[in-house]
TrEMBL record:
It comes from the Bacteria. This is Octaprenyl diphosphate synthase. Its cofactor is Mg(2+). It comes from Pseudomonas jilinensis. The keyword Membrane does not apply.
Length: 322
């Protein structure tokens, strides 16, 4: 994963963050370390710590505080994944069994709690009240987004505005907090810090929109999760919402029933419906507009390889297959 070009500008920083993460997973309870190492060791794209490092470097920061901030962000993200997999009863993530599938729900939730609290311990050590305020708020917003999404499961009346509120809260918020805090930590100007914050928001939205397209067009091996997972859980994502709104009566009814009952019995005709009615193109075009906005925001930063990497990352968000 880290062979992608936008990782190379912060290769050494990335390695320092990985080492710090492993040191901070220490616990006097062996099961905490075992589950922590398992979920962190699964890898993934580590995009949130990546944007911390690129954003901080783009604003001229060169000390190890950025490593601490990147590790904090990764712990917050990993905690949400552990909790998500329990809520969604998922058994596959990043191509491996989920922690809850291996150890059960209770240990997964509690280790998620441990990672949250370890992240806040590290925030205290960082000693920046503005960053702590930003991340505390982000953690609240993410939790609200999770609950909002949960309340809309199997609700076929969910509209696009509600969907966008869910993804802004649940996914984009941590990207936004990552880049915002990078600017704060680097002591960037208010204009640059605000541009980084908005870049993170746009990037997060684009990634989630593309994820929701890949749920119908990707394959399990490259994505590291099952195709149709969201449909199986009865989650009304944008391709489905658009199909119910703009598709034929038959397509709309097919999707409505599938959301209401959950499961994957109708996955093949639904894949056909979301493609035929233009739902996938509509969702991808929204993602492209977010990427265009993200790239434009970067122009407030001085030219550097780090700014170039942030732009490459934004473009990758819509060109990927995983």
């Amino acid at each position: 994963m880290t062979t992608l070009p936008f990782y190379s500008a912060v290769k050494d920083d990335f390695e320092a963050v990985n080492q710090l993460i492993m040191r901070q997973l220490h616990s006097r309870v062996p099961l905490v370390e075992k589950i922590g190492h398992y979920i962190i060791g699964a890898g993934g794209k580590r995009l949130r710590p990546l944007v911390v490092l690129l954003g901080a470097r783009a604003c001229g920061l060169s000390d190890s505080r950025q490593h601490s901030l990147a590790a904090i962000i990764e712990f917050l993200h990993t905690a949400t994944l552990l909790h998500d997999d329990v809520v969604d009863t998922s058994d596959l993530r990043r191509g491996r069994s989920t922690a809850n599938a291996l150890w059960g729900n209770a240990p997964s939730v509690l280790v998620g709690d441990f990672l949250y609290s370890r992240a806040f311990e590290m925030m205290v050590e960082l000693g920046d009240m503005a960053i702590m305020r930003t991340l505390a708020n982000a953690t609240n917003v993410i939790a609200e987004g999770e609950v909002l999404q949960l309340s809309k499961v199997r609700d076929a009346s969910t509209d696009e505005a509600t969907y966008m509120e869910v993804i802004r809260s649940k996914t984009a918020m941590l990207f936004e907090a990552s880049t915002h805090c990078a600017g704060l930590l680097a002591g960037a100007s208010q204009t640059q810090t605000e541009a980084l914050r908005q870049y993170g928001n746009a990037l997060g939205i684009a990634f989630q929109l593309v994820d929701d397209v890949l749920d119908y067009t990707g394959d399990a091996e490259s994505m590291g999760k099952n195709v149709g997972d969201d449909l199986a859980e009865g989650k009304p994502t944008l391709p489905l919402i658009y199909t119910m709104r703009e598709g034929t009566a038959e397509q709309a009814q097919l999707v409505r029933q599938a959301i209401q009952k959950g499961g994957l019995e109708d996955i093949t005709p639904i894949q056909q419906a979301v493609r035929d009615c233009g739902a996938l193109d509509y969702t991808l075009n929204l993602a492209r507009s977010q990427v265009d906005e993200a790239v434009e925001l970067l122009q407030t930063l001085p030219a550097s390889t780090y700014r170039d990497s942030l732009e490459q990352l934004a473009r990758f968000s819509i060109d990927r297959s995983f």
